[in-house]
Structure formats: C-alpha cells, structure tokens
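A quick aside before the break. I want you to see a complete sequence-to-structure record at least once, exactly as it would be stored in a machine-readable document. Don't worry about memorizing anything.
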Amino acid sequence: MDALDVERSRAEGEQALQALLQFAQEQAGTLEAHEAEKGIFKRLLPIGLAAMKLYFAQRGTGDVGAAVTRADGMILPREKPLRGRDYFSLFGKFAVARTCYRTPGEPGIFPLDAQVNLPERCYAYFLQEWMTLFEVEHPFKESSGWFEQLFDLEVAESVLMEVAKEAPQDYESFYAQRPMPPEATEGELLVVSFDGKGVPMIKAEAVKLKAKLGTGEKRQKKKEALVGVSYTVDPKPRSPEALAELLVDPEAARARRPQEDVADDAPKAQQVRRLASLVRTKEAVMELIKAEAERRDPQHRKPLVVLLDGALGLWRLATKLFKPWKRVTFVLDIMHVVGYLWSAANALFGEASQAGKHWVQQKLTEMLRGRVGYVIGGLRQILTKQQLRKSVRETLGKVITCFHNHRRWMQYDVYLAAGVPVGTGVVESACGSVVKHRMEGEGKRWSLAGAEAMLALRSLKKSHDNDLRCIVKKSKRIARPVTTSPLWPTPQLEFDHAIAHTSHRNGRERWRRNKAWTGRNSSGQLPCLWTKNSGCAMSTWPLRTASSANRSTVACH
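That is the input. The structure line, written in tokens, reads:
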C-alpha cells in the first residue's frame, strides 16, 4: 500500500474546514442554535480525521535503514512493499502504512508501532478511554449506540466487553503510586467497613456456586462480591435518646429540629476509597483496604474504627487483621441492631403497631446507653415466662443469639461519647453505587472475568471520578537495547522463542510455535510482528528480556 501523503492529508483537512465554515455561514438564517451546533460538531470529525492522517504522514513509515540485525545474528532486510494496519480513532478509521523488516520464515518487525506507541488493538487509546467512560456507567448495547449517535462510529458490543476486561490491568499499581490526599482534607477518625453484595452470573458460572442442593432449595444465581471502604471522618458525639429517636421515628426527630434550633450537622465521610471484588477472597479484599489505611496513616496516629454488620465470618477476619492497630474500635452496625429489634417487636406486638414502635425505641435507647445485657435479660424473661407461639419463640431466640454473639462490639455508650460512627451507611452506599446500579438489572448476567473487570472500573470511578481515564492501559514494552554489529551497521534486536500464528478462523488468529522478537532496536524503538499469510500485526508479544520474564496477551488487528 502507499504511505499517507502530507499534502493530500493537508488538502483533505482544508477542504473539511471550508465545508464547516460554509455550513455555518449558509445555515445561519435557517437553523436554530442547537441544530447548528449539532451540524458543526458532525463536520468537525472529518477535520480531526484529516489531522490524524497528517500526523502519521509526518511521522513516516518507521523506516530505520536497509536492514536490522537480531541478537542471534539473523539479518532482517527491509521489504519493499509497505504493510498496512487499521487505526480506529475517535474521528474514524484509516489505514497506516508501515515499513516491515523480515526474511522468509521469520516474523516481521514494524518499528513504527513503537515509535508512535500504537495500541495492541486497532482501537486508539483515546477511543478506548471513551469506551471505558461509557461502559462503566451504561450497558454495553447502550454504549455502542452512543458511539453511533455521537460520532457516527460502529463499535460492536463485543469490542466494548473486551476493552472493559483489559482496562483495569494496572488497577493495583495505579493505587500503589497514587499520592494520598492532603492531611487538611482528612478527618480525625480513620474508618474501614465491609459488606457483601450479590452479582447475577451467567448460567455457566451459576452452576458452580453450589454443586449440591438441599430438598426444596433453589439454585443460587448470584455470587457475592465483597465491598470494602476506607475513609476518614470527624468525631460527632451524640446522645442515646436523640439517636434512638432518629433511627426509629425520623419524621418526629426532623420536625423537632426547627423548634429546638438544631441543625443536622452530621459529619461527612472524607476521601472515600471503594473496592469491590468477586475473584479475590474476603481476606484479600480486607488486606487491600488495610493497606490503604496504612498508606493514609503509616504511624497509626489516628484512631481506627472497624464497622461491620452481623456476619461472624467477616468479624473473625477483621479482628485478626486489624487488632494490631494501636487504637482500634470494633463496632457492630447499629442498623443491624435496629432490624433485629423490629423483628422482635413485630413478633410480639404485630407489624406497624404503635406499641411495637414505642418498644423498639425504648429498647434501643437502653442499648445505646450501654445496657445491652439488660435488654438481653429482658428478652430472655419474655421467652421463658410468657406463653408464646412457636414462631414468636423462634424469632426471639434468633434476636437473643445475635445480641449475645456480638455483645463485645456493642459498647454504644462508649462509642457515642467519643463521637465514633456507629452505622455502615458508607459501605452500604458503595454496595449500591459500585455493584447494584451497574451489575444488576433486566437481562444482566456476568461472567466471572467480566464482572471482576467491571467492578474494578466501578470501584475506581466511584472513588476518584477524574482518574478513570488513567487506568486505560497505554503500555510500552521495555527491553535492553543491543549494540549494533560492526560488520553490518544496522539496528540489532533481542529475540526469544514464543508463539507465532499463520492461520485464520472467523477473522481471529490462531497461534503456533515460532521465533519472535523481544526487544527494541539500538535507537530505543520497539518493533512489531507481522506474519506472511495474514498481514496481522501485533504491538505486544509474549516477551522475555534480560530483566523481565513477563508475558502478555497477544491481540490481532
């Protein structure tokens, strides 16, 4: 194919610009402002396409000389015909001509791929950023429609799915290098919290969740993702009576505020880090949140608050991991307590009864005053001294067992006096914003890999809104340059045995063993591969350099 021409690309851009200006001038008297804006935007795209062609025309084809020499002494001469590769930008798709160095039976090398850092796929990195921004908030089909509506681009749903899977590859390293928020923006208390949220799985994944079902038991269709949060907050002391009324009768509590001239000045969570995962174990998620807390406060100067609901498995892990912290407070979510009190009240007084409501507020006030044992004793007396139905007795038994098992983490009089938060609202909100709003819905079913990738993107999006574009991988391979051969003054490259391909199937490439490059030439340029039968080019390959043995997934263009 022919190389892109500078003058032709410039002429295309000037012609598109004239068409834009002519449209604005001629339609000024007939179109409304929003219609003119839409037409102008559509006519800006050809200008961007011409500018991208001009960029590649100026960069050339990657010609670095008559030949290059591999580290094993193999000389790869320059092929006469240029080899093309599609480049799919936000402005449209066009072909880029590249110089190829190869000899029969050996894979080809394309220096231009490294000179301009072409993506592994034909889709431009900037376009992949837009894909990620759309798909992290909207279903894949809807995101595909947005590209067609806004940019006249046909982006298949399958492409969006693959980009979503690949986008968070640098997720952990991104957070490891991210600077911590300024101390002035942080609260006095450091808080971590965890909760679970189910993700609907495709049938192939769902059948693995529980191999053997009990009698009358339905097959589970969701897999639980563990959601963790880390944040800081300022302490806010509260009275037991005021908090009990707010939790049981919030309308009455809010109606009294104007009369008593009391504002709702509850402290807000600061710098919330959210994390959700299906693949990691619960302990691994807790370890990551703990590492985040350590980065926030490496000297353990802030008091640490660990907030959980009633899951004893999470409590066992949390107490083990966070107990070494210098000053740590473990708190059972107060809403978990309120829920159990309402269960007992509904069993004793019936649902939606005023007597039950008054009973819940009274018992909750006692518990917030630190009299958990008194409330447990009262429930036991009701259970032993009154004639109750079997269902009521079972309900009271569950309530008593819960309070007894978690009693050590229910010192609410101490928590309220110190201004420690006692609710898991932040992590429950994360369960909704990170998991539910994107992962659940009509027809939504996920594979394990797809769900994990989307949860990573959602975690980043909801933690640091402006950093989502930074996670799109724009990697360059780094290999030790090799000195030029004095007998043949051409760039020299390191090679290794890897997997090469020569066959097609439904437009996808299949691979077999061959030789492949693993390095840059002496000018620091990373080549690319090409195979004789298909002309398929890769800007990444399973590599092994002098300092690394990392391998990466091969993608075709």
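Two observations worth writing down. Residues 127-172+449-471 form one domain. The CA atoms of residues 148 and 268 lie 40 Å apart. We'll return to this after the break.
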